[in-house]
Amino acid sequence: MKTKGKVTGIVSNLVTVQVDGPVAENEICYIDLQGVKMMAEVIKVNGSTASVQVFESTRGLRGGDSVEFEGRMLEVTLGPGLLSSVYDGLQNNLATMTEVFLQRGEYTDPLDHEKLWEFTPLAKPGDKVIAADWLGEVKEGWLPHKIMVPFSFQGEYTVKSVKEAGQYNIDTVIAILVNSEGEEVPVTMTQRWPVKVAVKGYKEKPRPNRIMETGVRVIDTMNPIAEGGTGFIPGPFGCGKTVLQHAIAKQGDADVIVMAACGERANEVVEIFTEFPELIDPHTGRHLMERTTIICNTSNMPVAAREASVYTAMTLCEYYRAMGLKCLLLADSTSRWAQALREMSNRMEELPGADAFPVDLSAIISNFYSRAGMVVLNNGQTGAVTFIGTVSPAGGNLKEPVTESTKKAARCFYALEQNRADQKRYPAVGPLESYSKYLDYPEIREYLNETVEDGWVEKVLRAKNYIRRGKEASEQINILGDDGVPMSYHVNFWKSELIDFVILQQDAFDSIDALCPMERQRFMLDLVLSICDKDFDFEDFEKCRDFFKNLINELRQMNYSAYESEQFWAYNETVKKLTA
Amino acid sequence: MATKAYQRVYTKLEGITKATVSLRASGVSNDELALVGGKLAQVVRTKGDMVTLQIFSGTEGIPTNAEVTFLGEPPTLKVSEQLSGRFFDAYGHPIDGGPEIDGEPRPIGGPSVNPYKRRQPSELIPTGIAGIDLNNTLVSGQKIPFFADPDQPYNQVMADVALRADVDKIILGGMGLSNDDYLFFRHSFETAGALDKIICFINTTENPPVERLLVPDMALTAAEYFAVEKNEKVLVLLTDMTLYADALSIVSNRMDQIPSKDSMPGSLYSDLAKIYEKAVQLPTGGSITIIAVTTLNDGDITHAIPDNTGYITEGQLFLRADSDTGKVIIDPFRSLSRLKQLVQGKKTREDHSQVMNASVRLYADAQNAKTKLENGFDLSDYDHRCLAYAKDYARELLAIDVNISITEMLDTAWKLFAKYFSPAETGIKQALIDKYWVK
């Protein structure tokens, strides 16, 4: 029998409920507001009083209103049809809602129950299977979507029967399994999973051993992120966080992309589903939207659902990872998620940690980042979830709890800098403060040496060193004046400007420059380094400046030209002549 | 607001703070309105049978035996065409001596638009001010604040922008407006002959601060009526959002909530987002554009109010006094319109975004030259040219008193490039140089 309760207190979206039976932490309940059922989640229990966070506006709710507990945690439905959908943080399908305004208590089904899928069996009667093993597959867009033994199944099962190939809807029983007690268990194309629990169902989680290409030079060349790796992008507002994240979403080399718009602007989400259906995935030539799922909980949507949205997004990624696919999760912004935690903690009158955030913030963040990673499945194949989160530090100050906690958890750090943004040096990722710990991984170094070119990582480090030397030179020039320093300082400064303008900066709105494949990145870095390695001497610093400005201009025109086009080689020729 | 005969009247207050009162009552719904000793109040917390009410006009003079009646509904605004041309207080009552509005009552602060039902903003809002149109182009459905120090003429600029913009309705939400500024707005709207498309909700410094909390929701409820039901293009002006946030912190403080950064409530981000996210481009053609003002304390944008605002809005327009020209300019470095690329080069000339970037980059070089000069170093020829360019650029394009078309702005920029620089120094794409360079 379901536990029932009565509302006894309301502060904004925190409601206290007097309960008549057992309740569990994170259990879902529905509050009845004059016939409208509003979903809520238990976040604290004290005696027979449960504090629940309501995923809706509590306007009009009264003391004494009835509450019914569901005996389950917040779950998502997993099955074919998740891709190209637009969901809210609780996995309601936003596209099938009819009204212009979001209606309280309106929950829509995440998946289409009518649609028929072309099913092919992969398992056969007599097979021994465990949770997450593949029973069959359907084609979702161009991806093989595996139908798996539900993640919640414990122990070993024997396959009794599997449907023959054919067209079925998602509710069709496609296999019957027998458990160790001899009971028959039917399996359909869908399963449910609680979002706050990590999906296991893999053999091991090794260290990542290859990089995920994004087409963004400042990432791929300077600080690459591994497939199955984690990274984060902190930056003050107006530094191009969103543009950078959209570039990664458009160009990232992944089979599945889940974008969690967590407490961010609605117009940015609109931009995604206006532009993505038009755009073509550079790796497969298919429409981008076919591989993309959007979890959208914009800043004006209920706060509690904001917290749920990142977990929902992660669970979808883990589901596709279990099919042996490469997934990329982008969450914009994890600070909004942390603020949602802060609002609840505050209303529950918990003792606050730094900046009034809950004291376990750091643990919650690192726990979430740890759900990413490359895994070896039970059948030996691999899958990966790469996670890049953005952080919106208050006042642009990186010494705040969310940035500091995230820094401990994420392996790549892409620091967006205000002064680079002010100078329109986009993407404004600071070359010296940012880092990728993957550059230290022997397996990643080996991978880069094999796939890009021998000695690649040394070249990248050498480029960073030129930038560092340029920065030191520029500080000296600022102190001592143009005439007060030897010519070598000017040359060093301009060499770093050369790397800055040609490699670091990239025009995200130019059709050619926006996407720079690894091969082209290799060519450009080699070219720029070959120039930097030369010795230059000039009569005066103005000649030096004019020479490099001219050179930078030619190299930038190269970036704007199609790779290996006539124009491209013409500019390359001019560069050669200039530096001969 | 008349009380109904059958309503229960409570007469025993258990607690009074400067902004709230609490009492024992039953059957009270969250967010509902009440009258406490004749003053309007709203339920903000229920704990068992203890109800806390926020009194909009302050609790001065409220005795513990004040009569309390609950009205059974959240704050509403009566909406109809009759709103046009009228001035109201924070409760939606006329303050212009005209009759009450006849219309359907709508709860204010209603639900948000399903993001999937929105359209991508794509209509340019020209203002004639180059610091905006050229560098930070505005788009309908956008939300953007002016960041300005209190001594800057932000209300004047906002009134100019509103009156030049091609919109069907202008709705002003004034919070903590000085009486002089209120009269200024009223006068500018009247002299522009635009009164029939204006609606104002005004809370002046003479009114209690907590009343301000109603103003944005009132203005936006009216805006939603015209945008959603009449498919009109509505421009909402909100000034000054800093004073709105201050009122939020007063209430939160009186409710014993733990403050976060700068003594603001922990929910500041969500509270502000709820307002700004009402900006929308609807599929039926109607739109709500929000231009707000956030006053700064000595240019400090790291304070919680401008900081949270910056993360919510689609850019910001930064006003700064320029010492070179003695004019107030729109700062090209700190200002940003996030939606500009939706119209630049699409609704404007193809060279727009490259010209904008080049002109700002050269202006940045001028700032570096200025630093060198201040530090007592010799300037190069390029530095001198940059400095001369910066002066012209600030006077002819960045100043807020500029009023020209976007094509004229682009031509002016090309003229300045040719006057001071070589094509290579601008770093603009060759194809555009070939077409537009002034020889």
Helices and strands in order:
The complex is a heterodimer of chains A (580) and B (439).
Chain A: E1 4-11, E2 14-19, E3 27-33, E4 36-46, E5 49-54, E6 66-73, E7 75-78, E8 86-87, E9 117-121, E10 128-129, E11 134-140, E12 143-148, E13 157-162, E14 166-168, E15 175-178, E16 184-187, E17 191-194, H1 217-222, E18 230-234, H2 241-251, E19 256-262, H3 266-275, E20 292-297, H4 303-321, E21 326-332, H5 334-347, H6 361-369, E22 373-376, E23 382-391, H7 401-409, E24 412-413, H8 418-422, E25 435-436, H9 442-451, H10 456-480, H11 487-504, H12 518-532, H13 541-560, H14 566-578
Parallel strand pairs in A: 8-20, 18-23, 18-24, 19-20, 19-21, 21-23
Antiparallel strand pairs in A: 1-2, 1-6, 2-5, 3-4, 3-6, 4-5, 7-17, 9-11, 9-14, 10-13, 11-12, 13-15, 15-16, 22-23, 24-25
Chain B: E1 9-10, E2 13-16, E3 20-24, E4 33-36, E5 39-47, E6 50-55, E7 68-70, E8 76-79, E9 86-88, E10 104-107, E11 124-125, H1 130-133, E12 138-139, E13 143-148, H2 154-164, E14 169-177, H3 179-191, E15 198-204, H4 215-229, E16 233-239, H5 241-254, H6 268-276, E17 280-281, E18 287-295, H7 304-312, E19 315-321, E20 328-330, E21 336-337, H8 352-374, H9 381-398, H10 406-420, H11 423-426, H12 430-436
Parallel strand pairs in B: 9-15, 13-18, 13-19, 14-15, 14-16, 16-18
Antiparallel strand pairs in B: 1-7, 2-3, 3-6, 4-5, 4-7, 5-6, 8-10, 11-12, 17-18, 19-20, 19-21
Helix pairs in contact in B: 2-3, 6-7, 8-9, 8-10, 9-10
